Each structure stands twice: as C-alpha cells, then as structure tokens.
TrEMBL record:
InterPro entries: HAD-like_SerB, HAD-like_sf, HAD_hydro_SerB1, HAD_sf
GO molecular function annotation: hydrolase activity
Keywords per UniProt: Hydrolase, Magnesium, Membrane, Metal-binding, Transmembrane, Transmembrane helix
Protein name listed in UniProt: HAD-IB family hydrolase
Residue stretches spanning the membrane: 252-273
Family statement: Belongs to the HAD-like hydrolase superfamily. SerB family.
Alphabetized PANTHER family for the sequence: PHOSPHATASE RV3661-RELATED, PHOSPHOSERINE PHOSPHATASE
Coiled-coil regions, chain positions: none
Pfam name, any one: HAD
Length: 278
C-alpha cells in the first residue's frame, strides 16, 4: 500500500506515539450494508436489473439478522467479482458520490458518530477499514472526517474492472493493513483502538491494545466475553448532519482501492440464500 498526506501537509510532530481508532464500516458505523445501499442508483444507471433490486430487500433483511461467515463471504466475493467485471470505474464512482448523502447520511449510527467525534477531540486519527472498495469507503470516510481509509482493490484495465481482486481487505489482511499503516504513520498499536461487529474481524481487534465490539454477532460476543472486551450496542441511525455539524476534512485513501465495494443487491442474496437453503 502507499500513503499520501492531505493538501495541508504531513502529520504534525508530537512528543509521543500517534494513536488511531480503527473502525469497521458495515453494522459498526452504518446500520446497513454499504454495498447493498447503492442497489437503487446502480439500477437507475443500468448496472443491475430489476430482479437484483427486488432481491436486495431480502438480502438486507438477512444481513441485519445474521453475520456472514467465512464461506458466505468468499461466495459473495467470487460472485460480485464476476458480476462487476466490465463496469466502468468512473461511472461507479460518480454514482456513489452523487447519491452518497441521500443514501448513507441517514444510516450512520448516532452512537458511532459520537464515538468518532470523541476520538477526534482526543487528538486521535480515525481510520476506516473495510472489505468494500474505495469508491464507497472513501466518500463515506470523507463524510465522517476520517483521516485514512483502507479497502479492497480490484484490478482495473482501460478504466474498467477486470474481474481480478488485487487486495481483499478482509480477515487477516485487515490486520496486515493496520500494521502497515502503523509503521508508515507512526501509530503505537498497543495504544490504539478498534471497533467491529463481526467475528471475521477478530484479527483486526486483536491487533490493538483497546478493542471494543459493536453489535457483535454470536461468535464475536462469545470471544469478547471470554477476553473481557467491552461491548457496545448501537441502535440509533440518524442523519450525520445532525451529529457532526462541522464540515469534515477530506479522507486520505490508504489504498487506491476500487471495485469490490461496488457490490449490488444480488451478490449477498445469492450467498445468503444458498446458505439458508442448506
């Protein structure tokens, strides 16, 4: 991965190690799958069909009720990689940015916004770490005032997704990305914080000195209880404009990632339905 600094320069010198708060995105900061949330504008622009849009309602319902395990996630990854092959990268990014505020704004947990604001007030960096792609993660990070975003990356050829994942920011790879940015920026991970809802993010939580689980799935709740980790319940999605009134600073993307986050409704539907039937 490569890193770049905001337009106003590099990091300020500090007397001690820098501290970051690492946040998963879906069901941790926002109440809905960031990928499924964009199924309607993707349909309006002709990227997906009506059948996929209709299936998204059921997929979202299942997403809210349960956590996808490793096999489900892998099936989803394979399906969406095949599905978005050939999509125009600029078109996807444009759709997301044009519809971002209307779609994502009401989905941010009030408690997550308060938590982010609290870390910023303490002088901590905020880093979004998500398996989705930068065309979704980066704009959401900008809304939240995040300092960095780390996301999945799909190979792009001639401005179109080539159907090959170059970096999948998931599981152990999330922890690896966190260690890389810590070395680059100067974070002391033993003093850093991490937040997630899913057992698949156990490596991410174990990478820091202060892990906290948010709305944990059953497996993560069991682990958190055994390890004595704090558990929080976020229940109040509310417009971010009402919670973070100041205009956030631009996000610095820690990965020039595009593609995997441009997932449409049918993706999770196929993986979840297949699992439920068996």
């Amino acid at each position: 991965m490569t890193y770049s600094w905001p337009a106003d320069g590099g990091p300020e010198s500090t007397s001690g190690p820098r501290i970051a708060a690492f946040f998963d995105l879906d069901k941790t900061i926002i109440a809905k799958s960031s990928s499924l949330a964009f199924s309607r504008p993707f349909f309006d622009q002709g990227l997906i069909n009506r059948r996929s849009v209709l299936k998204s309602s059921y997929a979202q319902f299942m997403f809210l009720l349960s956590a996808a395990d490793h096999d489900q996630v892998e099936r989803m990854r394979k399906h969406v990689t095949e599905m978005c092959t050939g999509w125009d990268v600029d078109q996807v990014s444009s759709i997301v940015r044009e519809t971002l505020h209307d779609i994502v704004n009401p989905l941010v947990f009030a408690e997550a916004a308060d938590l982010i604001a609290g870390h910023k007030a303490r002088g901590h960096d905020v880093v979004i770490v998500s398996a989705s792609g930068a065309e979704i993660v980066e704009p959401i990070g900008e809304m939240l005032g995040a300092d960095y975003s780390m996301a999945s990356r799909m190979k792009v050829i001639d401005g179109k997704y080539a159907g090959e994942v170059e970096f999948y920011c998931y599981g152990e790879e999330k922890a690896a990305a966190m260690n890389e940015i810590a070395e680059s920026v100067g974070y002391d991970l033993s003093q850093c914080f991490a937040y997630s809802d899913s057992i698949t993010d156990l490596p991410m939580l174990q990478a820091v000195g202060h892990p906290t689980v948010i709305n944990p799935d059953r497996a993560l709740r069991k682990q958190a209880t055994a390890l004595g980790w704090p558990m929080l319940s976020f229940t109040k999605p509310i417009s971010i404009r009402d919670r973070l009134p100041n205009t956030p600073s631009p996000t610095v993307t820690a990965s020039a990632a595009v593609g995997l986050g441009a997932v449409v409704a049918g993706a999770l539907t196929y993986s979840i339905l297949a699992r439920k039937r068996h």
